Amino acid sequence: MKRRDLVRKLEAAGFVFERHGGSHDIYKRGAEEEKVPRHRELNEALAKAILRKWDLL
Predict the structure, then answer these.
(1) Domain boundaries, the chain
(2) pTM
(3) Tens digits of per-residue pLDDT, 15-47?
(4) Maximum distance among all Cα pairs of the chain, rounded to whole angstroms
(5) Which of 4, 33, 49, 51 is most buried (CB neighbours < 10 A)?
(6) CA 32, CA 24: separation in Å to the nearest integer?
(7) For the structural domain made of 3-53, what CATH number should be given?
């Protein structure tokens, strides 16, 4: 999955970019936090796990 597709889905669910980490970007929704790796193409299993974690799949 492309990174920007995952980010769009997170943002549609209310997550907002907070800051850049070492090799990840951090998105927050209230007290909830998700770290997204900074790669153009993400491992499909990782992307699905992140979406499943927030019931977005």
Answers:
(1) 3-53
(2) 0.93
(3) 999 999 999 999 999 999 999 999 999 999 999
(4) 27
(5) 51
(6) 16
(7) 3.30.920.30
